[in-house]
């Protein structure tokens, strides 16, 4: 069971890293609404991760609600298959919001 949790954690972290890197690229390269949504999404992901790093699960759960809203908004604004990246942020926000995070 421990090895399986480790593998799931590594792949989950990899997917969040890819989605966050995409949001950073969108915040730098695009303009208009899409830029600002991805910038806010990037800041929300960093805030949730910082709260988890400091061991405050309650703060992380409170911060994951705006993260979920921003990720849904980014999914609506994005075009074609690029909607997949905000979907990864949505999954991360729901996992933290529900409380499947162990410190």
Please give the structural blueprint.
Elements: H1 2-29, H2 33-53, H3 57-77, H4 84-98
Largest sheet: none
Strand content: under 5%
Radius of gyration: 14 Å
Q: How far is the N terminus from the C terminus?
A: 17 Å
Helical fraction: over 70%
Q: H/E order of the elements? A: HHHH
Task: Indicate the low-confidence ranges by residue numbers.
Answer: none
Q: Give the number of DSSP strands.
A: 0
Structural class of the helices, strands and pairings? mainly alpha
Describe this structure as you would to a colleague:
The protein is mostly helical. The protein has helices at residues 2-29, 33-53, 57-77, 84-98. The longest helix has 28 residues, at 2-29. The chain is globular and about 45 Å long.
The gist of it:
The chain is mostly helical and 103 residues long.
Task: Give the key terms.
103 residues; mainly alpha; single chain
């Amino acid at each position: 069971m421990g090895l399986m949790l480790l593998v799931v954690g590594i792949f989950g972290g990899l997917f969040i890293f890819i989605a966050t890197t995409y949001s950073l690229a969108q915040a730098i390269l695009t303009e208009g609404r899409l830029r600002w949504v991805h910038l806010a999404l990037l800041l929300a992901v960093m805030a949730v991760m910082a709260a988890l790093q400091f061991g405050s699960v309650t703060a992380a759960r409170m911060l994951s609600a705006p993260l979920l809203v921003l990720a849904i908004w980014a999914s609506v604004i994005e075009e074609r298959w690029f909607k997949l990246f905000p979907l990864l942020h949505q999954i991360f926000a729901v996992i933290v919001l529900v409380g499947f995070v162990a410190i």
